[in-house]
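User: Could you write out the 3D structure of this protein bound to flavin-adenine dinucleotide? I've included everything you need below.
Assistant: Certainly. Input first, then the structure.
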Amino acid sequence: MSLHVDYLVSGAGAMGMAFSDVILNESDKSLAIVDRRSAPGGHWNDAYPFVRLHQPSAFYGVNSRALGDDLIDQVGWNKGLYELASKGEVCSYFDRVMREQFLPSGRVHYFPNSEVNAQGQVVSLVTGSTVDITSNKQVDAGYMQVEVPATRDPDYAVDSGVTCVPVNALAKVAGPGRIYSIIGGGKTAMDAVLWLLSNEVEAKNIHWVRPRDSWILNRANIQPGELAAKSQQSFVRQMVEIAESETPEDMFQRLNAAEILWRLDDAVWPTMYRCATVTSAEFAQLQRVTNVVRMGHVQRIQTEGLQLAEGSYALPHDTLYIDCSADGLAKRPSKAIFQDQSITLQTVRFCQQVFSAAFIAHAEVAYADDAEKNTICNVVPHPDTAEDFIRVTLANTLNGVTWSQDEALTQWLIAARLDGFSAVRRSDDANMLDVGMKAIANMQRFLAA
Ligand SMILES: Cc1cc2nc3c(=O)[nH]c(=O)nc-3n(C[C@H](O)[C@H](O)[C@H](O)COP(=O)(O)OP(=O)(O)OC[C@H]3O[C@@H](n4cnc5c(N)ncnc54)[C@H](O)[C@@H]3O)c2cc1C
């Protein structure tokens, strides 16, 4: 069999799906979507059972179809804020987008359980059968290399006799009277701790290995709909605080006081920033865990406890070790998104992967040449360190300035479901422009120092 398409998309994860959706809806082009996994949605297929989106469903998925019902949660630790889709909802959503929208269009050819080989053929990983495929452009929708604990082994040794499982198995191994050691300082580890506390495990029975402490985002400031005014106020406040800061430390202290960035322990200055986002109720729960192991990365787990880069930490022999150390937000080297006949999907707004993929597809359709497209699509790599907060906030702000000078693009952004921010951040207020310029100058000064 042979096939020709306009776009050959490698990856049917959230980014590949969000890209393809805009191409389908804004052009008459055809696509082949190839993925090693057997269902669309990428890593969500391997996520832990109690995972939910970290940001409102309202901003997630593909641009053309709502995810969720735009409801505000009435119960739980996200109470009062917009709903967060569960793993099941996210997987079902992408499945329906594929079956109800993409395939019936007649312009999408979907190859699950497949990859593209060195000869450019689509190869089935099940049967080995091949399809000769040619395309006008190749889209790399796997460049961001999302890792989740279930799909890779931890990079520390585990002695025999020790129970160490990926976070996916937490609910299966948990039991009365157990001691837990949560390994990892990121959002997955926070989810694991919250799951234990929500199941009434005593905080003293949790030992949390946090090689680095993190600046954490307050989810109340990232809300759509009837709560968007608060998001707007917090955005204005953030720019004012950055504009008035003397030093990076002063900036973080001000943002902390404004409840834009939180830290779990007032005695520990965070060195990490990876967009982890929680509510005030979740934050208060996380602070209940006081057995925090800050001795660097785990090197080995032995029956008598943890061997870490900076020492050892004794734990009972039947402790359950829960691996939450996979890198779901790898800081990949930036490359030009549009190059020759290739499109490499990356973030153009930090930690907004699906928005970014949809935006890149719009740029592909709406702009003539690669240079122009790359100017609009300036990459904002994932953050990792506290300093990266400054780097990505500056890059986001500069992208926003570039985009705001293009009226057609501005209108697209305001109408885009996946863009939770442009509409609320739009301002003709001369004072705000002045504040924005001062904030940009300060961030540039902090990074140059
Ligand atoms: C627990 C968790 C919660 C999150 N919550 C949010 C949130 O609330 N809001 C938000 O905006 N973001 C969130 N994110 C970020 C999230 O990673 C992205 O939103 C998104 O799901 C990433 O999708 P992706 O397509 O880049 O990657 P993936 O999900 O990894 O998908 C890539 C796919 O490409 C396939 N692939 C790659 N290369 C090839 C190849 N050569 N051939 C064939 N197939 C290939 C892989 O098999 C995979 O299925 C969250 C992430 C995690 C881990």
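The first helix runs from residue 14 to 26.
User: Perfect, thank you.
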